[in-house]
Design goal:
This protein is an alpha+beta fold and about 675 residues long. The protein has 24 helices and 20 strands. It folds into 3 domains: about 150 residues, no CATH class; about 230 residues, no CATH class; about 260 residues, no CATH class. It starts with a helix and ends in a 13-residue tail after the last strand. The relative contact order is 0.08.
Length: about 675
């Protein structure tokens, strides 16, 4: 690293460019960190010293400084020109990955970023015009990621399917670190804020029994996921453990429980480069964002240098990496995910976004997602893998954090048998119908007709899965993949919280199960609202099917949300259990439609396909590619916006499941207790 330190120091000392001085300083700090952390004494510094150092490293990204730094696209564009400013702001955001690489002792990737910086500085020669410099930087970034695609893609594949005892997660979780000494958090090399520090401290204060209960629920859901779908977990040797930094005490216990089941944990770091998907949701081993506005502004930076050729290169490398790890991939069981919620609300500002994909690039992204999904499914077969997801609040949720955390534990461990039996009564009523009518109440204009598949043997078949706490924790829903043909109407929610964002007066129109129109009131300009939905709900597809219709039954979670006024902070994982919901995108059985699925009563759930997913069996390759959309977004209608859910039978008989926001089907009355 010393050679790079000397070289970059010379560039920084010899320039009048504020941009090069700023980004060069970041790289020099990262290069010096790589030298320092090779000595274990680095992590014996006082906690206050590490906090101060991290505050300095991430200072330009923090909300109070962001708008006055080249990381903020409008600032960079104002000083450097629209085109060059956008590119250099994106480059700066990518250079922030150097901190992670330094702490993880990944000197190869750190040197690559130093090389990208030097090449880009050369292309920013002052004697050239701004347009020429922009073209040179764009070309440099495209060539850099094309030529080094293997370095960034291969590490992700191997981290997912091959356990590595030398990686930072294993070193923290295998007992080498004292989790009561919060200095261990800084070993990850990512932003460490109040959420991470306070979460780790809070979990350290729980008893061993409480930690075991949380971990056992999480691991148990994963194991049940294989059992209920009839998949053989004994064929699997690894599980990808995804968790927020600060949860190490729970994860350490979970890793031991997985090991008892014959599964070794793998860990994939959060994406930190535009090339690998930075800003597009929190996955892997991740931290809460230091500035969600930065995430939003830079989430499409890859579009600045993207091309069809670059996507093809990435796909070729992905396939090659899977082939080289084919046995390990086949033995991989899928992800076990811990999500968090409770961050302060965030209002996107489209005018500050660095880049928006062109229509052509959106088509390229859709094609890439389809092909990469097909590759992953080929080497890690969907019919053999499973998953689980569980969620907990962050300290940022407010002063009642500890109360909410304990209430969420209760929600995550509700009585399995009670919900199983109540939900079976709902399914029995639904299975007598040919369709279901869902209507909103008051200002909610929802009016959806959901067509159900025909049951040829009702004694052995069902349309709805009885979802108890396995892959989707907590307990509480019955769901189906509707027939697309004949499913139509309006879906409306006054406030929907999907992924990172809130949607105001979200409205989707459907015909034959496909989205035909959409709007929201997030922006004064309705076109911006449409674009917001296109980017973050449709994921650049011109339309999406209704992949799921469900009735959430977890009224305890609904009551919790109302009591603590956190409806806008609950994740989709919990929100989908708090009322009826529709999902747009793939079905819940994506890539595993041919695997038989049985409910606890022994009936097979036959509604695993729709007319789009069935295209996977087409002999026409173009049609086959239209089977999957590689997204699935749940939109929940709260009980107080609901007039009715009514089963429509072939003979004209109608049976209400819910009327005026309450369960009215005999045998479901207990679900109303939390709603009183």
């Amino acid at each position: 690293m010393k050679d790079w330190i000397n070289r970059i120091s010379q560039i920084v000392d010899g320039t009048d460019s504020d941009y090069i001085k700023k980004t060069g300083k970041l790289l020099l700090q990262a290069l010096q960190l790589a030298e320092d952390v090779s000595d274990e004494a680095f992590f014996k510094r006082p906690l206050e010293d590490l906090q101060a150092l991290w505050q300095e490293l991430y200072r330009p990204m923090l909300p109070e400084h962001y708008e006055h730094d080249f990381l903020y696209p409008p600032f960079a564009k104002k000083l450097l020109g629209d085109e060059l400013g956008a590119l250099l702001s994106a480059l700066y955001a990518d250079l922030y990955a150097s901190i992670s690489y330094a702490l993880q002792q990944d000197t190869k990737k750190l040197a690559l970023l130093a090389e990208l910086f030097v090449q880009s500085c050369v292309e920013c020669r002052a004697e050239e015009t701004e347009g020429a410099r922009a073209r040179n930087v764009r070309r440099t970034m495209a060539a850099f990621y094309h030529d080094n695609a293997r370095a960034f893609v291969e590490s992700g594949v191997r981290a997912m399917v091959v356990p590595d005892e030398t990686d930072v997660c294993h070193r923290i979780l295998d007992g080498q670190c004292d989790l009561n000494d919060l200095r261990y958090l800084y070993r990850y090399g990512c932003h460490i804020g109040k959420n991470e520090l306070e979460m780790a401290a809070y979990l350290n204060g729980l008893s061993d029994e409480e930690i075991h209960k949380i971990a056992a629920t999480y691991v148990g859901g994963y194991i049940k996921g294989f059992a209920v779908t009839g998949k053989d977990i004994t064929k699997k040797k690894t599980v990808k453990v995804e968790y927020p930094v600060g949860f190490e005490r729970v994860v350490r216990e979970a890793v031991e429980l997985f090991a008892k089941e014959g599964l070794s944990a793998t860990f994939v770091p959060e994406a930190v480069l535009s090339f690998t998907g930075r800003g597009n949701g929190k996955r892997g081993v991740y931290t809460s964002s230091p500035n969600r506005r930065f995430d939003f502004d830079h989430k499409d930076d890859k579009g600045l240098y993207q091309s069809a050729e670059l996507n093809q290169r990435k796909l070729a490398v992905l396939e090659e990496c899977f082939r080289q790890n084919e046995t390990a991939a086949r033995e991989h069981g899928g992800p076990a995910v811990i999500e968090v919620f409770g961050e302060a609300s965030f209002e996107p500002m489209p005018e500050s976004k660095n880049y928006t994909y062109t229509a052509e690039q959106n088509q390229e992204n859709v094609a890439y997602a389809a092909k990469s999904g097909e590759l992953t499914n080929r080497f890690i077969p969907g019919e053999e893998r499973s998953f689980t997801i569980i969620a907990f609040p962050l300290p940022e949720i407010g002063g009642q954090f500890e109360e909410i955390f304990r209430e969420i534990i209760k929600v995550n461990t509700l009585d399995y048998e009670l919900y199983r039996d109540i939900q079976q009564r709902i399914i029995d009523a639904l299975d007598r119908g040919t369709a279901v009518r869902v209507r909103g109440a008051g200002d909610n204009v929802t009016d959806m007709l959901v067509r159900l598949h025909g049951l040829t043997d009702p004694g052995k078949q069902t349309n709805f899965e009885n979802c108890v706490a396995d892959v989707n924790i907590p307990v509480g829903e019955v769901f189906t993949s509707p027939r697309l043909e004949g499913t139509a109407g309006t879906l409306f929610v006054s406030h929907a919280y999907l992924g990172e964002y809130e949607y105001k007066n979200l409205r989707l129109e459907f015909a034959d199960g496909m989205v035909t129109d959409y709007s929201c009131d997030n922006f004064k300009d309705s076109a911006q609202g449409r674009r917001f939905i296109e980017d973050n709900v449709l994921y650049h597809h011109p339309t999406l099917p209704v992949g799921e219709f469900a009735i959430g039954t977890n009224t305890t979670a609904y009551r919790l949300a109302r009591d603590y006024k956190i409806e806008g902070k609950l994740p989709v994982l919990i929100m989908e259990k708090t009322g009826p919901h529709f999902a747009v995108g793939d079905t819940c059985y994506s890539h595993a439609e041919d695997v038989p699925m049985f409910n606890p009563d022994g009936k097979e759930c036959i509604a695993r396909d729709n007319s789009r997913s069935l295209l996977r069996k087409s002999e026409d390759e173009e049609k086959k590619a239209e089977a999957y959309f590689h997204c699935h977004t749940d939109i929940t209608i709260p009980f107080d916006e609901l007039q009715c859910i009514t089963v429509l039978e072939a003979d004209g008989k109608e049976t209400d499941i819910i009327r005026d926001g309450r369960f009215v089907l005999p045998g479901t009355e207990e679900l109303n207790v939390p709603l009183q």
